Amino acid sequence: MKFLLVFDFDHTIVDENSDTWIVRCAPEKKLPSGLRNSYRPGHWTEYMGRVFVYLGDNGVKEDEMKRTMTSIPFTAGMVDLLGFVGENKELFDCIIVSDSNTVFIDWILKAADFHKVFDEVFTNPAAFSSTGYLTVQDFHAHHCAKCPKNLCKTKVLKEFLDKQLERGISYTQIVYIGDGENDLCPVMLLKKDDIAMPRQGYTLEKKISQLARNLSPVECSVLVWSSAIDIMSYLKLLIKK
């Protein structure tokens, strides 16, 4: 009997957007308006590539970026929740599927000693170039019209579940914890025994409510959370069953 916990990262594990948090490293802690206005919907990774070039051009080095990123606050109750999951790893497999990047997530999890809680992290690959600039690439290519061009979380989740089945691992229940619009696609994949946990007041909760009002509700159960303590309470009930 094993449960799969799927976490988004920004506004879910951390209480901010890691990609906008890095702007604190920029001169005067802001981006020029031309750069800010260069974002096109669905092309966030390309936009962040330009942001990282701007930071590099302004002499922002890796150690400064790391200091800034590791100061990002965790969401209320998240430290307790991840501690609890870490103590019960025999019951929980745990993955992150995020539109952030490998460098930021790695820094943040390692600084808080949470990297061992997660079995895998699926996010946009990033690395520092020989000139010291941070570069980021799309996670994959896909054909889902609902998702940004660099990442379809449903594709990631399907491929992970298929790979686990090949290893003889299937899950009693999938618990999906997220907040954003790009979390709706994978929530639609969940079955009636699974549970979606959207963060209260954020886009995912609003989108799920909208579907229910339009009489096409999601198939899984839905439990809204405002603090990660709400999630931990649910998981404690789950493992008592």
Give a topology summary.
Layout: E1 3-7, H1 18-21, H2 33-36, H3 44-57, H4 62-69, H5 78-87, E2 92-101, H6 102-111, E3 120-124, E4 126-128, E5 134-136, H7 153-166, E6 173-178, H8 184-189, E7 195-198, H9 203-213, E8 221-222, H10 228-240
Parallel strand pairs: 1-2, 1-6, 2-3, 6-7, 7-8
Antiparallel strand pairs: 4-5
Question: Any overview of this molecule?
Answer:
It is a single chain. By secondary structure, the protein is an alpha/beta fold. It has a domain at 3-15 and 74-124 and 146-239: Rossmann fold (3-Layer(aba) Sandwich). It is 39% helix and 16% strand. It has helices spanning 18-21, 33-36, 44-57, 62-69, 78-87, 102-111, 153-166, 184-189, 203-213, 228-240, and strands at residues 3-7, 92-101, 120-124, 126-128, 134-136, 173-178, 195-198, 221-222. The strands form 2 sheets. Strands 3-2-1-6-7-8 form a 6-stranded parallel sheet. The radius of gyration is 18 Å and the shape is globular. The termini are close together. The model has no long low-confidence stretch (mean pLDDT 95).
Q: Which percent bin holds the helix content?
A: 25-40%
Residue-averaged pLDDT: 95
Quick one: overall form?
globular
Give the CATH class of the domain at 3-15 and 74-124 and 146-239. Answer: Alpha Beta
Low-confidence stretches: none
Any idea of the CATH topology of the domain at 3-15 and 74-124 and 146-239? Rossmann fold
Class derived from helix and strand content = alpha/beta
> How do the strands of the widest beta sheet line up side by side?
3-2-1-6-7-8
The largest sheet, given as strand count, sense and whether it forms a barrel, is: 6 strands, parallel
CATH superfamily label of the domain at 3-15 and 74-124 and 146-239: HAD superfamily/HAD-like
Number of strands: 8
**Distance between the amino and carboxyl termini:** 11 Å
CATH architecture of the domain at 3-15 and 74-124 and 146-239: 3-Layer(aba) Sandwich
List the total number of helices. 10
> Helix-strand pattern, N to C?
EHHHHHEHEEEHEHEHEH
